[in-house]
Fold each of these.
Amino acid sequence: MDIITTPSYEALSKEAASYVSRKVQKNPHIVLGLATGSTPTGMYEQLIKDHITSGTSYQNVTTFNLDEYVRMNKKNPNSYYAFMEKHLFQHIDIQNELTFIPDGMSTDPQMECSIYEEKLRKHGPIDLQILGLGANGHIGFNEPGTSFSSRTHIVELTDSTRKANSRFFKDIDDVPTHAITMGIASIMEAKEILLLVAGANKKKAYEQLLYGEVSEDFPASILKKHPCVKILADQSVLDTSSIIA
Ligand code: F6R
């Protein structure tokens, strides 16, 4: 794993955006795997700035999002569909038909998982997958204990994840109980992975990722087995590591 540490969240976001936009410029038909949550929002902001100022085009870019809540209408501001529109898609020249997010409103969520895998097979593999890190080590919504061989599936969210995500909702009871997520094996098929880690609440998880063993009890640990992972971590998750960017 290639690790870059940055002095601030802003520096992390700029570094991540510059990495992604260079990849898009080099391969205008790139397939990107995208994450929602707090961590990548700064990167998306920078990508929008870059699109406006440097003209980086997303006309031929395909995107796959990691996850979506079950029984969450696209129009609900807490849906990951709405998140992506707000934080990225509506500001760039991406084609709607080339942005894929699991359909949380499908009448048959199980079938939706198979359909999503089929789309990944058809349009993939993902060239560059962006990931955030859950405080309990989850990636996507793959909670501790998820099989490393899992494909896109329905998950029951843990209390800790629902609590963490309740900051976006009026009340914790409004946080959905289930989500559709790409599985760990689906994520590991990406050619390259960029993991963003920011915020003091990720310090323990970050340490476990670096120094712990590879175990299904800590889903992110599988990344150690991927041939091409880059980690961008900001100062708040560090103890003594040197800052190089
Ligand atoms: C989001 C996702 C999650 C988040 C993780 C960290 O699509 O799949 O795994 O990346 O929960 O979330 P934040 O960035 O909000 O701390």
Amino acid sequence: MIALKSKREIEIMRDCGRIVAEVLAEVGQKCRAGVTTLELDRAAAAATAKKGAVAAFKGYRGYPASLCTSVNHQVVHGIPGDYVVKEGDIVSIDFGVLYRGYYGDSAITVGIPPVAADTARLLEVTEQCLYRGIAEMLPGNHLSDIGRAIQTHAESAGFSLVREFGGHGIGRKMHEDPMVLNYVTGGRGIRLKTGLVLAVEPMVNQGGKEVEILADGWTVVTCDRSPSAHFEHTIAVTDNGPEILTQTAG
Ligand code: MF3
Ligand code: CO
């Protein structure tokens, strides 16, 4: 069942999304050579508490942290720990909060200079994929328009799209209907309407599309261990077009 949001609900989700964006920006700043992923997690937890929100991932199906930190060939759901970030790494930082009854969810991938040229291009293209997907979030378009835009851009750049994970509806629950595929399957999918709120999150690999889950039960990695990038926003479909909710006020 798809729960469309009222203007009032979207106002709350805008506040929620701003908190996500502010914490993510703060953590992104701290993501430099020498920091551990656990230190990033602690910074996120402290910033979240200060803003009166609750970190959404911690405790979700037993997940142990506030952030997902996925380095290099890790695609998503990497668990923060004693890993020391180093020059040349790319670090996906995925973060969500619960605030006044609603969820917001966003991710960035940060490159620690100097990043190899083809990997820097992977980051650029993956972020562009997110924005191309978002641009399709217009009333009257179909869900598959988002996936088509993402897939076309990633594959025309010579990269591959992860199939096993995708985006989702979001609101009173972190994961709501519909599932948002980052590729096309054949059907057009539902028609997009004002009040639909989605988390769109392309995961793009530099090498092959195949992924596997490590023995920790969470960390998703590329089978060929090639680098992978991930960007995510929470976005509302409005009469005036897509509104990105997970952005800072400025
Ligand atoms: N952005 C991820 C998602 O939408 C966050 C879930 S990670 C988990 O699925 F740890 F909470 F599971
Ligand atoms: Co998500």
